[in-house]
Amino acid sequence: MFSLVVCTIDRFDQLERLFLSLTRQRLGDFEVILVDQNGDDRLVSLIEQFSTSLTIRHIRSAKGLSRARNNGMAAANGDYIGFPDDDCWYRPDTIETAVRLFVAHPELSIVTGRTFDAQDRVSLSPTGSGSMPVTRWNYLRCGNSNSIFVRRAALADIGGFDENLGVGADSPFQSGEEADFLLRALAAGKRLTFFPDLVVHHDQVTGDHGPRQVERARKYGRGFGALMRKQDFPFLYVGYRLCRPIAGWLLALVRFNPDQARCKHAWLIGILEGYATWPRWRRG
Question: What is the pTM of this model?
Fold first, then answer.
């Protein structure tokens, strides 16, 4: 059985879209662990609407994506666990494909896939067109949290998500939790593989490069900088990851695109801040 840990806050219509997609799954042996971070009962009517077609377990959690996912995993009963965002949706064969891959590859602890928008264009993160083992060097090209599926038995060695990382964390580091999860799985000796035929849908993420987008870039940059420090990446890798936003920033300036330049600069500064300040937040 699958457990789908769905953490949600301040969403309704997009969550309804996800639930609709789950009612159309070809393989129906799954439960939804709805981890509700809202301070009110706005989701009660939606849960009631789908309670006859889906097994939904409604739990409450304090804010913080990693914290909420950990609470959801603690409540899960499935042999496999997925982490769909509340604004993504599944293809009819998404769960069926994940099960098929786990059965065909008993040596794998985690399978990851691609994220497409409604027009089947790659969204959220670039990925390859062929299957590949996930490694310490290609993890950024091997999916995002929406398309991560893990054997529950492997969690004893991997652990949960780092609650110092991710959106809503009680720290400056507002990203990096799923990459950290994959990297810790590798460090624990687990085998992970990316499969392009495992697909989850998510809209394209676009921004106007306004003040909110600039602040978001800086917060997410801090998460990535903290991730590199936590995972002890070599300075050559860190330097490469710094050169990319530097080049993007300078290119935006040359093209007289000050809004994009501000975002690239914010991402760069965020990486430096996260890398420098991670040790004081580290636990254990």
Answer: 0.95
